[in-house]
């Protein structure tokens, strides 16, 4: 991934002009102040600070990804470009998430959880979005076509932005100040001739004597890729058979019963890449008035239609066994059944399992609408020291309708078996009448809503011998609400899917904040931030941040930040009704034969806020004797306490198995002899995270052999990642994702005025399989891309991703296809191209 890490000289040389015209990061309009010589000096705002300044140098490490880099590498969604960054870890949901994703796409900075990375749009909060009562932003709602650049702040920023910025901030800056018309067409396909993507977008803008108006529209479509269509995919067998099984036995074809053997291959129905269709409209405006007041506004609307597909419903029901006095609501065990060992358990029941292939695959569909509008007024106070004021309002709303075709009603299923015992136990296909009786389409709906009012004041306080002390102060009111209504069949517990209750709730928060930048000497500058938040739910939170920059020489700058942070419990964590999840687990008692075991999830209205400490320390080196070269090295550490979490269920199972008197048996509701029928995972504030590592960036621009060259290398070395006292450093697992010690992105470009060729590679280091302890192979992906400017109007681009068609590494507890699709490329080689026309 081609990215730029902000450095002192590199910014001064090449980024100032871009930044000065388009950064507006907190609702404070980027206005000019009067210098001593009466010339206008542009003040800009940088992600991570509200203080306007003349350059982009701060104590915090910030990475910038340009729109040109995004297009050159063929990214068609925001989550793809972000997850390719070395600073990402874990397993954020995205285009490759088929089971349980609801079509959303998220970002997971440092692998600390998507809920701990704050996403901003033009410096203001983006509404959470998805299927309803969501705790993070669905990146699908932000089309790539509207992006001017993406800025990633890689330290804790709660003192500046409030809740959710524990791991950092992703600030997406949209295109503005555009004049003319631009049409873009982009598409891709795989070497297997599937998984096609297509996007068309248009951008139109015009200037007036006192402003600019920019409008855009985009349409994109992504086709699916079935798991079994990749030859490296091993069949994923399940013990739920299309013919059905009773107490683990199946008919042998001769009137008797035998133990079931081969299972059903669910990879023939499941996706590696999920289908997605999006429609987006967006607009930006800047309007200056005669009294020097400036109005800025942006609007966004996105409709997403997405699908996932899983194998036909695996149904498991416990059937009452008839005795001599029983009525018709039971099954009669024949002599052949009892001779085969089929018998009732101590409760008088027997288990029947069947993969309901007669109904068809489960097709999950979502239709979501996300709307956001943000507007602000800004101006200067009529005083000599150039004070700037601003007020802003942001409104966001998300609504979703979801469905699951070919769902199975477990209550109707049991009654049908009692009434049609021969039909169900024969092993033959089911009649249309039976299928219609037991199947239905599951319907649910949900949404999120957000209101944010803010006001601020910033400017210069006074001069000291080393320079000017600058400040920013402000206040904010934010209201958040969310709801989710499952299908009545699911709420009643009659579905073969996990039971789930409705979610509905809201909260508000009042915040005040301040920042001060103090030049202690010509070389040493301090940055100080303090924030106070008062929530209607858990109460009050105070956070602070201290940053220092020291220009040791003209070539070397040292920087460091210490900060505290917090994350308020989300609506789903506070008010989410009990729900179930089929997690990938191993039953140490051996009672459960499948890797997916039902876990009951619960929420808690009394949850408190998470707390965090973060530290970064590094250097920026831009040697004067090598023009165009810059190096950055940053150490980082994040510690989260009082974390809202669900304890590790697998660890609980293992502890209870080892000691039946262990507290884990009660904590997870594990019954005697490993009874997992009420296995529960409750949200609690006893969690913790502790992670640290080192980021390294090298950027070098130079001319040689009549060509212009750019080399960029990003490396993240993970020193430690612990969660709830369990060390996941350099581990990979289907539930948690990957925490590789080494991730590296390398990029080299060469070109002239009209053309550019780029080679890049992405390395994910060798890891250890969390379940087995086996080594999981490292992967190196190779990519090539080219851009050619046919004329001032027409630009062509093309490229190949994963040139060598690398196979994903095998993971024993993989979430899909024996691997982790959120970590590795499961689609294979892709060809892409595009054309851009400007008028």
Task: Provide structural commentary.
There is one protein chain. The chain is 10% helix and 49% strand. It has 839 residues and is mainly beta. A hairpin with a 4-residue loop joins β27 and β28 (524-535). The chain is globular and about 100 Å long. The chain starts with a strand and ends with a strand. Residues 362-803 form the TonB-dependent receptor-like beta-barrel domain. It comes from Shewanella phaeophyticola.
Topology:
Elements: E1 4-5, H1 8-22, E2 32-34, E3 40-42, E4 62-66, H2 67-72, H3 78-83, E5 117-121, E6 124-125, E7 147-153, H4 158-161, E8 168-174, E9 180-190, E10 197-208, E11 211-222, E12 225-226, E13 237-238, E14 245-246, E15 249-251, E16 257-259, E17 264-265, E18 271-273, E19 276-288, E20 294-310, E21 314-320, H5 335-339, E22 349-355, E23 362-380, E24 388-408, H6 410-419, H7 421-425, H8 432-438, E25 439-464, E26 467-485, H9 488-491, E27 503-519, E28 524-535, E29 540-551, E30 556-567, H10 571-575, E31 579-584, E32 596-602, E33 610-621, E34 629-646, H11 649-658, H12 663-667, E35 680-704, E36 707-723, E37 726-727, E38 731-733, E39 737-738, E40 742-751, E41 755-764, E42 767-769, E43 775-776, E44 779-789, E45 794-801, E46 830-838
Parallel strand pairs: 5-8, 32-35, 38-42
Antiparallel strand pairs: 1-4, 2-3, 4-7, 5-6, 7-8, 9-10, 9-46, 10-11, 11-19, 12-18, 13-17, 14-22, 15-16, 19-20, 20-23, 21-22, 23-24, 24-25, 25-26, 26-27, 27-28, 28-29, 29-30, 30-33, 31-32, 33-34, 34-35, 35-36, 36-37, 36-40, 38-39, 40-41, 41-44, 42-43, 44-45, 45-46
């Amino acid at each position: 991934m081609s990215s730029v890490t902000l450095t002192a000289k590199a910014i001064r040389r090449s980024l100032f002009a871009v930044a000065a015209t388009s950064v507006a990061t907190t609702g404070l309009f980027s206005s000019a102040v009067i210098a001593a010589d009466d010339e206008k000096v542009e003040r800009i705002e940088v992600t991570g600070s509200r203080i306007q300044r003349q350059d982009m140098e701060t104590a915090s490490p910030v990475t910038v990804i340009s729109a040109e880099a995004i297009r050159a590498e063929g990214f068609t969604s925001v989550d793809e470009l972000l997850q390719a960054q070395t600073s990402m870890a874990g397993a954020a949901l995205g285009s490759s998430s088929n089971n349980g994703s609801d079509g959303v796409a998220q970002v997971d900075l440092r692998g600390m959880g998507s809920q701990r990375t704050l996403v901003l749009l033009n410096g203001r909060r983006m509404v959470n979005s998805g299927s309803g009562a969501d705790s993070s932003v669905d990146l699908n709602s932000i089309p790539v076509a509207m992006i001017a650049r993406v800025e990633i702040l890689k330290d804790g920023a709660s003192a500046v932005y409030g809740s959710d910025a524990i791991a950092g901030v992703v600030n997406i800056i949209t295109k503005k100040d555009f004049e003319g018309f631009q049409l873009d067409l982009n598409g891709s396909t795989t070497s297997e001739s599937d998984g096609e993507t297509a996007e068309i977008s248009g951008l139109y803008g015009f200037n007036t004597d006192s402003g600019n108006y920019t409008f855009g529209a985009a349409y994109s479509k992504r086709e699916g890729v079935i798991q079994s269509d990749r030859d490296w995919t091993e069949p994923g067998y399940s013990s739920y058979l299309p013919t059905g099984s009773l107490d683990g036995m199946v008919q042998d074809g001769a009137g008797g019963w035998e133990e079931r053997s081969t299972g059903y291959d669910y990879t023939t129905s499941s996706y590696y890449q999920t289908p997605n269709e999006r429609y987006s409209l967006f607009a930006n405006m800047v309007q200056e008035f005669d009294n020097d007041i400036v109005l800025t506004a942006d609007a966004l609307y996105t409709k997403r239609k997405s699908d996932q597909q899983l194998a036909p419903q695996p149904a498991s029901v416990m059937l009452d066994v008839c005795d001599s006095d029983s009525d018709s609501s039971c099954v009669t065990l024949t002599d052949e059944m009892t001779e085969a060992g089929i018998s009732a358990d101590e409760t008088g029941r027997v288990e029947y399992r069947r993969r309901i292939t007669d109904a068809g695959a489960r097709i999950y569909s979502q239709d979501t609408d996300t709307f956001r509008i943000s507007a602000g007024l800004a101006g200067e106070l009529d005083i000599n020291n150039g004070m700037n004021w601003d007020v802003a309002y942001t409104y966001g709303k998300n609504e979703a309708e979801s469905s699951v075709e070919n769902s199975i009603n477990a209550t109707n299923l049991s009654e049908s078996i009692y009434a049609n015992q021969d039909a169900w136990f024969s092993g033959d296909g089911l009649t249309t009448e039976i299928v219609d009786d037991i199947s239905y389409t599951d319907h649910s709906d949900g949404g999120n809503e957000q209101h944010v009012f803010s006001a601020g004041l910033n400017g210069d306080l006074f001069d000291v011998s080393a320079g000017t002390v600058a400040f920013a102060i402000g206040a904010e009111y934010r209201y958040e609400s969310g709801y989710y209504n499952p299908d009545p069949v699911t709420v009643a517990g009659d579905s073969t899917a996990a039971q789930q209750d409705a979610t509905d709730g809201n909260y508000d928060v009042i915040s005040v904040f301040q920042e001060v930048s103090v030049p202690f000497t010509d070389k040493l500058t301090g940055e100080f931030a303090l924030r106070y938040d008062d929530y209607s739910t858990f109460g009050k939170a105070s956070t602070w941040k201290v940053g220092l920059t020291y220009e040791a020489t003209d070539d070397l700058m040292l920087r460091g930040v210490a900060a505290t942070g917090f994350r308020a419990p989300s609506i789903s964590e506070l008010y989410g009704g009990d729900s179930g999840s089929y997690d990938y687990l191993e039953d140490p008692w051996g009672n459960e034969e499948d890797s997916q075991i039902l876990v009951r999830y619960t929420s808690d209205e009394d949850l408190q806020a998470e707390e965090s400490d973060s530290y970064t320390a590094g250097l920026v080196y831009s040697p004067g004797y090598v023009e165009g070269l810059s190096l950055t090295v940053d150490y980082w550490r994040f510690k989260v306490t009082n974390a809202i979490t669900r304890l590790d269920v697998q660890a609980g199972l293992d502890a209870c198995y080892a000691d039946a008197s262990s507290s884990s048996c009660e904590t997870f509701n594990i019954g005697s002899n490993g009874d997992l029928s009420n296995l529960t995972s409750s949200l609690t504030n006893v969690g913790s995270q502790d992670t640290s590592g080192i980021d390294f960036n090298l950027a070098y621009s130079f001319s040689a052999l009549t060509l212009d060259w750019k080399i960029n290398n990003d490396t993240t070395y993970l020193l430690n990642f612990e969660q709830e006292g369990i060390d996941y450093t350099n581990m990979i697992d289907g539930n948690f994702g990957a925490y590789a010690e080494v991730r590296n992105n390398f990029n080299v470009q060469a070109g002239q005025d009209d053309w550019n060729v780029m080679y890049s590679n992405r390395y994910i280091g060798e890891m250890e399989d969390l379940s087995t302890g086996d080594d999981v192979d490292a992967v190196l992906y190779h990519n090539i891309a080219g851009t050619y400017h046919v004329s001032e109007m027409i630009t062509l681009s093309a490229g190949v991703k994963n040139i060598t068609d690398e196979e994903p590494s095998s993971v024993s507890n993989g979430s899909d296809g024996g691997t982790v699709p959120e970590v590795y490329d499961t689609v294979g080689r892709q060809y892409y191209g595009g054309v851009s026309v400007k008028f």
